Amino acid sequence: MTEPVVLSSELLGFPADARVLVVNCDDFGMRRGINSAVVEAIESGIASSCSLMVPCPGAGEAMRLLRERPGIPFGIHLTLVCEAEREGAWGPVASKERVGSLLDEAGELFSPDRCGELLGRARIEDVEVEFRAQVDAVVGAGLAPTHLDWHCLADGGRDDIFELTLALAGEYGLAVRVWGEAGRQKVPGLPVTDNEFLDSFSLRLDGKAARYAQLLRELPVGLSEWAVHPGLADEESRVVEPRGWRVRQTDHEFLMSAAARELLREEGIFVIDYRGVQERWSAGR
Predict the structure, then answer these.
(1) Distance linking the first and last C-alpha atoms of the chain
(2) Per its UniProt record, what InterPro entries does this chain match (predicted)?
(3) CATH number for the domain including 93?
């Protein structure tokens, strides 16, 4: 007889019928307009945490903001891909000679349209060097992340990268963003996202606020996670990211809205961050 699935929300101490949501702002550190929007969405909106991208131009400012605001929970958005359309290339945090298989012909991180090429050539030893460099840069700055997740590569993109990330999380006492039944089987007994994972870049711009409202009303029992991408519609964002800035602006508008806050209250949804998940991961290993 199959054992009943214990929801991750229950592992975190919530009632069996509770609806629990992590609203995590990805891409913190990409640039100033994103940094400002993320902090605002957490401090004054409905967002609960963020994920820091260490190789990006705005990472130094982002880490300063985190030092000034020790109450903001954050993870590390492990980055092997340069997403910005017109911002210039991002280099690795580790020295380039140590991570050659992760770099394109210009010696920079690959663009998203070449993820397949990256995953086909990346040596796991190089991935470990770069991931460690990113984590160590954050820890060395006196900051305490809660979890690890991946930029552009979903669950790491390869099984060995996923397993490497789990090992690093165990070493540093962190959780990992894992979702679904397949993820639950990989980390038995540890809390993962119970329900379908939402990336806000998958939502249509037209009627987005109404769609977000619908998703909150229909949020299932258990632990859910939204990866949102707030950003300001400043001139730099419009130039650097001529397609993506609208996604970020509309995310920011909803996260800051009174309607979103009221919906959470009406629906009785618990919004949490990764600190409780991190505690369970650390205790369960």
Answers:
(1) 27
(2) Glyco_hydro/deAcase_b/a-brl (IPR011330), YdjC-like (IPR006879)
(3) 3.20.20.370
